[in-house]
Amino acid sequence: ALFVVGLLSGLSASGAWRTWLLFANQAPFGQKDPQFHLDISFFVFTYPFIRLVLAYLFTAVLLSLAAAALVHALYGGLRVMQGDIKVGVLATFLLYLQRFFDPLQDLSQFYNTFQSAAAALEKISGVLDEPPAVAEPASGARLPGRDGDGREVRFEAVRFGYRGDQVLPGLDLTIPAGQTLALVGETGAGKTTIARLLARFYDPGEGRILLDGTDLRELSDADLRREVVMITQEGFLFGGSVADNIGLGKPGAGRREIETAAAAIGADAFIRALPGGYDAQVGKRGGRLSAGQRQLISFARAFLAAPAVLVLDEATSLLDIPGERTVQAALRTILAGRTAVIIAHRLSTVTIADRVLVIEGGRIAEDGPPEELLAGQGRYSALHASWRESLA
Length: 392
Fold this sequence. Notes:
The chain is elongated. Mean pLDDT is 79; it is low at 1-15 and 26-36. Helix 11 links the parallel strand 7 and strand 8. Helix 1 runs parallel beside helix 4. It has helices at residues 2-12, 17-22, 34-81, 87-129, 191-198, 221-227, 242-247, 255-265, 268-273, 291-305, 321-335, 370-375, 379-391; strands at 153-162, 165-175, 180-184, 206-211, 214-215, 228-231, 309-313, 339-343, 355-360, 363-368. The protein is an alpha/beta fold. Strands 6-7-8-3-9-10 form a six-stranded mixed β-sheet, with helices on both faces.
């Protein structure tokens, strides 16, 4: 049972595929733990045989227990009626008989765990058999060297939709190198779609997205992941230590680099206060840490990756007000010297942006510095007023 549960725990990490993908860690999980793939291979090979044995064992145990209890109850009842034994002796014997079968019942219950593991494996296998949603070029283009101020991002007549529903009817947008751009708008306006296209989770149906003049489709996945990093709202952490999770940003990074990244973000103090410090285990999905602490570790991971372009998809939306203030200070550090796209659920995040776009129906409704848009009477001003009322 422990083997199957352990296997399920390993497979659950694939639910964090976006986090793994976004930090250039395209290598399979097994490179970190070679035993992982051996476990899967063994499980797949032996699955039909084990399933057959457990199915029959489960049935046999139940029938044996029922038959043994019935026979001994009838025979014992007859002996009680004849006066050979007392009722207490029969009751005690039947109780011990049940306890004798308990280990076998526990073994038969393993069948339920095994069935869950098998169902999970079938789902995982189906996902792994799917062809990639975006094709990697046979020979990737090379980006020019960057001067430390990020890279220019340009959307040219980009059209995109989900299952026939048009989300972006034709987006034209240029983000100069080093600029922090905030996207605001109602739910479903197309903000997250823009972010995911920039991170190349999808390719546009029409048009193209350029990074310093190079189409994203011409870049190898490894090069793209080094240049563009996305931080999602859940701040996903893998089971393991704090240092392991930060180190995902730069495979092979030493402890000094990891601690320097955490200190730059402002996470060093709380990490050292944890039992074990940087070696503290974060638990499944980072469950032993608060939402704010998980997000700070995500920021440290991104800071260590040192991308040219940083995308934040509502990275503060799950935080309380004190937690958001802590993360806001880290944001200013991580955005410095980079091109950044921020999807803002809370408009307090917009104040650190150089430029704001109000997105409506996949189109740009307003464009300008946040101070100018706030002083006007347009959509951004109305959204800001509505947000302020929600805090009252």
